[in-house]
Amino acid sequence: MKKTPQTGTQRNPRVYVLKPLLATTTDPMAAIKTNISNVAVSMSPPAPRTLPARQALPTPLIDSSKPMLKLGLDVHLEFIMAVVQRGHASAQAPRKFTLEQLVAYVTQCVAEGLQVFCVQESCGFGFVLHRGLMAAGAQSFLITPIALNGARKTDKLDARALCLRLSRWLDGDRDELSPIRIPTETEQRRREASRRRQFLAREIRCLANRGHGQVAEYCHLQLPTHWWGPRNWQKLATLDPWVLGVLEQLRQLIIALETQLNELLEALKSRVKGQVIPKGLGELSLVTVDDEVCDWFRFYNRKQVGSYTGCCPGEHSSGGKRRVGSIDRMGNGRVRALLVEAVWRFLRWQPGWKAALRMKVKLADGSSMRKKTVIALARLLAIDLWRWRTGRATFEDLGWIAA
């Protein structure tokens, strides 16, 4: 039977010829499925980055089946003033303990089946007492120093106020206390290396200035900047012998401190050796910030990082009026100073820094506004460092250039 193409209403009939399938293809819809899958993969959102687990803030672990013993501690180097409260009874009279006596008392109370909770203000005595109380079985907490009794301040009043605040905090009022994170011994010793570097550099400057003062007082002369160096020291042979003897003693001290400082610098730089760091930050600045922070994963959001730096603006607002003042300076002062110095270097060596580009108008609005903007950028730099050190962002995301 002879087939003719259908014309219908079309003048030129169309004949469609299908190409035969390839011999290797078993599924006639395989090519279509492959194209669809490729389009789906290209349109799917990128896989989310896995963020580290959130570190819990210091919180009490209360066992309702055991009675509680609360201790408010006002710590001194010679003694510890303590106020004891059993359960919800009235606070007892203040008592003096030594460190060993207090640890022994807590050990005895824990052996009797009591839950012991202690609170003290952080101070320059470190965390020896805290670790001793924890080893004895108590739950110890440290807070930043605060004004506890207004204009009146005694050791007994402070210990009592701490004990009562601890009692209300354990009852659920979380505004009474804000416990701080306690670094481990390893973190504390790593941080001490950076602080000892700053201490040695400060002592060298102090001794050098002492030499300048001695020569200005007794010889009415001006010493070279690095007067204890080998070349400059030979030029000082014409000075008064007594003055030269004083300078010799200062020179020996400075050389000994410089030897320790150089050894310490090499040890600190080795911690970040081989790491890719942003241009303008510097190895020592990065090591110092890392050591002061102890652990970047301790922060879970931007607000916590900004608060730690102390660069958040103060505020005095009421009703419809809002007034923002100077920064609160409530955080780590060492980190804040390093960040401000780093911002000035970033403005020169990181032209594509996204945080600075958002404030380029303020940076060009006079020296006064420029300085205020640098402080604001110091807080943003801390946040960017946190994002980079925790893997939340890369150099490209932040607009940084590698050194």
Structural summary, described in words:
The chain is of the alpha/beta class. About 45% of the residues lie in helices and about 10% in strands. Strands 3-2-1-4-5 form a 5-stranded mixed sheet. A two-stranded antiparallel ribbon has the order 6-7. β2 and β3 form a beta hairpin. α5 (about 185-220) crosses α8. The longest helix has about 35 residues, at about 185-220. The protein is globular and about 80 Å long. Residues about 1-10, about 20-25 and about 40-45 have low confidence and may be disordered.
Count, helices = 14
| Average pLDDT metric | 88
Radius of gyration: 34 Å
Strand content is 5-15%
Task: Summarize the helix and strand pattern as letters.
Answer: HEEEHEHEHHHHHHEEHHHHH
Distance between the termini: 83 Å
Shape: globular
Structural class: alpha/beta
Write out the strand line-up for the largest beta sheet, numbering strands in chain order: 3-2-1-4-5
Low-confidence stretches: 1-10, 21-25, 39-44
Brief account:
By secondary structure, the protein is an alpha/beta fold. The protein contains 14 helices and 7 strands.
